[in-house]
Automatic annotation (TrEMBL):
<comment type="similarity">
    <text>Belongs to the TIP41 family.</text>
</comment>
<dbReference type="Pfam" id="PF04176">
    <property type="entry name" value="TIP41"/>
</dbReference>
<dbReference type="InterPro" id="IPR051330">
    <property type="entry name" value="Phosphatase_reg/MetRdx"/>
</dbReference>
<dbReference type="GO" id="GO:0005829">
    <property type="term" value="C:cytosol"/>
</dbReference>
<dbReference type="InterPro" id="IPR007303">
    <property type="entry name" value="TIP41-like"/>
</dbReference>
<dbReference type="GO" id="GO:0031929">
    <property type="term" value="P:TOR signaling"/>
</dbReference>
<protein>
    <recommendedName>
        <fullName>TIP41-like protein</fullName>
    </recommendedName>
</protein>
Length: 459
């Protein structure tokens, strides 16, 4: 539901809605805009998979959803989107979390499928073999779900319900794993000599020639666009973290579309007053601090000028829990506050909560101070049960209610000051002559970046 602001409250706070029908407002030098669209299409998901170099993405990716907070005069931009969050998931590459299963599921995993696929990595398998294995596994899956053929439930519905990898894909996986093992062995290893073994002097019979293991491997490699050289690379990290846990705390940029002179003063201030290089002066400089966000003050009855909640991605973990990344924003006359939350619940196993809170207080002369708190919490169902908490998954549907039960594993606070240095500020720091020196260099046709390198050097 779209938030409707009170015009009188907006006017009293000096805020105004964004033009062109955009969702958001402009207040005290900040342009705050939220955008909500539908989930990515299959083609868009495929493009994301190629860019992220993965074959796994959440069930629902809202790739066009975003929240942007931009300080117009300095070009400071803090924004939140699904793509950057998934980049963080890829880089963190956590180990997979094992999902619990019923006794039937475990029986299938530890007894039925291993027996069905024993030695399958060396089979020169035919399509007829694959079909027979699929039929056998489908009978097992129907038994797991308590169904028979008389129930007239389509196979596709059963596959979607259980959310398991098909036996054909599993055979291909173990076959390629064994092929990599063979290729990495020394040329004198018995398995390599057997693989190169060729039988000559035999007369080929009539009909279609027999399918050999190498031919099956060749088709598998063509399907995934693999080469034999890739088998020698053991540094490839497989993205098996299907929980999509991300360390993402937001994206940051400094755009150069601010007023040119104001931007130049800011760069001079960063270089000569704060001692930052040109590269670091063009990025946000967060400082570690001991300050805390005053949540009690935020709970006061201050008019809410704008509010929105944006979902970035969501996955139900094949009906075994929830993985959800959202960002909420609230704008008041005194400042803005947002909560970026990753919530994971793997039923019967694990709960993980990663919160990032940002609070910006509006100061005088368009000066703003942003506090950022990151807090990671995590606990297993077993650990909570040992403390007397319920073990029923239904009791943990709302992360806001049970967050205090989860122990903290990481917590930090940072501060960012945003201000536009004036001539008076530069004079108070003793650097006003630098502005005049910069004007002399500018009259010679030098760019601002070259001026920054030249200012302050002896003539």
């Amino acid at each position: 539901m779209e938030w409707k602001s009170d015009e009188r409250e907006l006017k009293a706070a000096g805020a105004e809605p964004l033009p062109d029908g955009r969702c958001g407002l402009f207040i005290r030098g900040w342009e705050i805009e939220s955008r909500k669209r539908s989930i990515l299409t299959s083609l868009q998901l495929q493009q994301w998979e190629e860019e992220l170099q993965t074959s796994h993405l959440p069930e629902m990716v809202f790739g066009d959803n975003s929240l942007v907070l931009k300080h117009v005069n300095t070009g400071t931009k803090i924004h939140f989107n699904a793509f950057d969050a998934l980049v963080g998931w890829k880089h963190e590459a956590l180990p997979p979390v094992e999902v619990p299963a019923a006794a039937k599921w475990k029986f299938r995993r530890v007894a039925v499928r291993p027996a069905m696929l024993y030695g399958a990595e060396c089979w020169p398998v035919k399509n007829s073999h694959i079909q027979k294995l699929k039929m056998a596994e489908m009978r097992m899956l129907r038994w797991m779900c308590g169904l028979t053929r008389l129930d007239k439930v389509r196979n596709e519905i059963i596959w979607e319900k259980v959310g398991v990898v098909s036996v054909e894909e599993k055979m291909r996986e173990v076959r390629l794993r064994w092929f990599g093992h063979v290729m990495r062995r020394g040329s004198d290893a018995p398995v390599c000599r057997c693989e190169r073994l060729a039988l000559d002097g035999f007369k080929r019979g009539r009909g279609r020639p027999k399918k050999y293991w190498r031919e099956v491997i060749r088709r598998d490699m063509e399907l995934f666009q693999l080469t034999e050289d890739m088998t020698l690379d053991r540094k490839v990290v497989l993205d098996y973290d299907y929980t999509f846990t991300t360390p993402y705390s937001g994206s940051e940029t400094v755009e150069s579309n601010a007023e040119l002179f104001e931007l130049f003063l800011l760069l001079l201030y960063n270089k000569f007053v704060r001692g930052l290089s040109n590269e670091s002066s063009s990025s946000l400089q967060w400082e570690n601090c001991m300050d805390k966000i005053d949540l009690v003050a935020l709970a006061s009855k201050e008019p809410i000028l704008f509010y929105d909640e944006i979902i970035l991605y969501e996955d139900e973990l094949a009906d075994n829990g929830i993985s959800l990344l959202t960002v909420k924003v609230r704008v008041m006359p005194s400042g803005w506050f947002l909560l970026l939350r990753f919530w994971l619940r793997v039923d019967g196993v694990l709960m993980r909560l990663r919160d990032t809170r940002l609070h910006c207080l509006f100061g005088e002369h368009m000066k703003s101070v942003i506090l950022r708190e990151s807090c990671w919490r995590e606990a297993t169902f077993q650990a909570l049960s040992s403390k007397g908490y319920p073990s029923d998954c239904a009791a943990y549907s709302d992360p806001s209610i049970i967050s205090e039960r989860l122990p903290i594993i990481m917590q930090k606070a940072q501060k960012l000051s945003i201000e536009i240095p004036s001539r008076e500020m530069m004079r108070s720091k003793g650097h006003l002559p630098l502005v005049g020196q910069a004007g002399t260099l500018a009259s010679k046709g030098m760019s601002y970046w070259h001026i920054l390198d030249g200012v302050g050097q002896s003539k």
